[in-house]
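Person: Please comment on this record:
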Amino acid sequence: MLYNLNGEIRKHEKLLGLHMSNNDIVKKYPISVVRFGMGKEIQLYTDELVVTDQDEDQETRVQLDVIKRLILVPGDPTPSKLVLMADLYDDTTIILAEGMSNARDFRAMLPHIIELCPDLQLDPLDMGEQLRQALNNRRAWALTCYGAILLVCLSLCALYFIVAYLGAHH
């Protein structure tokens, strides 16, 4: 229970924003957030997509009902850094995020976006599946790299023990 300054119990409806007066400030909370880079975020609200860059004090707000298609392409110098673009209904294309490296959280955000905008087109069409495959490929390469390093270390240790054993007996 919460109390106001007069010691009266505040109603839960007030806390949930169900009975708001004109003097109360309404703060919207994002449905989903994707953090990437240094101070960059993609925030999904019920009616808009917000991309913030705290380093450059930039914020891009796009209403969900004006987005015709979301496009996700690999970055130019680094393919693992994705570029997210939006085609709008007025035939303009804007870049929402460059250098997005958090494919896992963006893949988790996709169902929320599609739920809020069922008519939204995705490019590529199987964006969620391609992100899943990219995450699996990255995980496989990481395991392969760790395995190779472990194999080299064990081989060097075995070679050292063989040389030490042969050197001690001659």
In short: The longest helix spans residues 127-168. The CA atoms of residues 101 and 124 lie 17 Å apart. Residues 30-128 form a domain with the PH-domain like fold (CATH 2.30.29.30). Strands lie at 32-36, 40-44, 48-53, 58-63, 67-74, 82-88, 93-100, 121-123.
